[in-house]
Amino acid sequence: MGFSRMNRRDACLALAGLLAGGLAPGLAAADEFPGRQVTLIVPYEPGNTGDLWARMVAPKLSALWKQPVIVQNMPGASTMIGVAYVMRSKPDGHTLLIGSLSTTMAKLTNANVHFDPQVELAPVLKYLKFKMVLATNAVTYAKAKNLHELVTLSESVPGGIFYGGTGPGTAFNMSAGFVLRGLGVKYSEVNYNGTLPIILALIRNEVQVLENTPAALKGHIADGSIYPIAAFGEERFPELPNVQTVREAGYKGFYPVLWNGVFAPKGTPPRVLDRIAADIHAVSTAPDMKDRIESTFSGFIPQSNPQLFAHEIETETTQWRDFLASIHFTPH
Prior knowledge:
Residues 1-30 form the signal peptide. The protein is α/β, with parallel strands linked by helices. The protein is 44% helix and 19% strand.
């Protein structure tokens, strides 16, 4: 049975009254954030630092937003499967990407990427900057205890030394490349599927140097199988006070700091981006979270917001583009 003409009119008036009176919040707030479940897309396998961080903050955000916040792993295609999924999602803040430097550099470093994440994604905030060190093994450390000596060693070995990396164009390889090339270290890359195989290769002296966090290398540093020889930072790290910085070693150029950040689909309203950034920062820097995050991931939580994050990405991209041109890098 259908409504009569009068019934239709009354129904419309009744619905308008409900909306105006706040009695239908689900309808009135359909486009508000957060209005439903929020999904954090992690474009990596479980156990990655981005995955672990997301699972730390998700319950806190859920409590703050009074909506479920779930973590969904979507690895594959050098993270581009997860990136593309978020790009295609509704730009309302309810689907977010846990990204990294590799995300923003993808178009420059991967010939198989036919879209530009920097264009198709909206920066929300940089939530962590990693402390990174260049490290070597016991055999190499006996010959080179700092970067100056590593340069000399690399020049004395036919073909140079080997750097253990995660693949051409990846953030690990290219950030180390800034410094190693800038100082004149003669080296070749040997790439592995993941950081654990690289660490094992270093201990076995299959490679002579790698880049990683102090936290990832802590046990091996303690047992003397791995030796950090330079810190990627403007100041020495408190946990490694005797390890010189790359600046102290004489490196004057730009070096990228590896980071993780949150992105939303392009077109997400600025007020939503600002809300998400402020809430994630507040949750991350709460007394019960800040030390836990920074110690777990061997990094620090920077001040960040959508505008600052976007500016940093733009500046960083210019530096990367110049560096890639200088070494005639061909996207893999």
